[in-house]
Amino acid sequence: MIAADFNYEAPTSLDEAFTLLRKYGDEAKILSGGHSLIPMMKLRFASPECIIDINNIPGLSDITREGDIMKIGALVREAQVEHAAELLEHFPIFADVTKLIADPQVRNMGTVGGNLAHGDAANDHPAVMMALRASVVIAGADGTRVVPIDEFFFGFYSTAIQPDEILTEIQIPMPSPYTGSAYHKLERKVGDYATAGVAVQLTIDANGICTYAGIGLTNVNPLPMRAARSEEALVGKKITDETIAEAARYASDDCNPSADLRGDVEYKRAMVGVLTKRMIHKAAQRAVA
After folding, report:
1. What pLDDT is recorded for position 236?
2. Which CATH class is domain 63-173?
3. Of 244, 231, 252, the residue nearest 285 (C-alpha)
4. Which of 98, 121, 278 is nearest to 194 (CA)?
5. Structure pTM?
């Protein structure tokens, strides 16, 4: 199908973008990469009066480290992440996730910020950012606020971003020494939504004790989901086959998948358990490497 008629604006500053958002209100949509918005418009699931293209706004396309925080601009492309040496050095999980996002054409335009702002539990970055305990920077005409990732997702395609605000940055705490991270998802074919996905970050001290665990789940809950009981099952303990099995069982039990053409509920729960085990193993190996 063809999208309904709309006005197109391409502001060159955040202030200009905020003015447009105030003008159009709920009838405006922000365009960054467009790989979520444009298909929805073609299917008439979204028919905004105005598209505000923020790609000409400077300062939103950088990956920088400031002290103990790694900052990813909202317009950073997935392909850019693939070659961000310092980011990948400290967070190898991004090397995992980017290669699993659709295909090179999509990664050349798709943005990390757009992936999060879309508010879809089937996207990859929500689970990853949960595992990393990230925060999201949201800017508006009245100022900027920082929202922890656990408080960012409100419902299906619904986030903490208000109609007159723009997601401008993602902030990730730098990991402690001996930290590893990993992500994988099961999909029927390249570019399909995940049947299930699991993101893990672990810190393991010199005695082999897990001092930090972050686990996020993809597309097995109406909202992006933190596997909280699984995290608790690991922290303060050695990473053994027994503790890994317990964490995997909790993740499988606590998720809330729906049956669809990718599998029934029990199959998806089983896949969450399998992926949780594998990603804990992988993250733990990277932590001590």
Report:
1. 98
2. alpha beta
3. 244
4. 121
5. 0.94
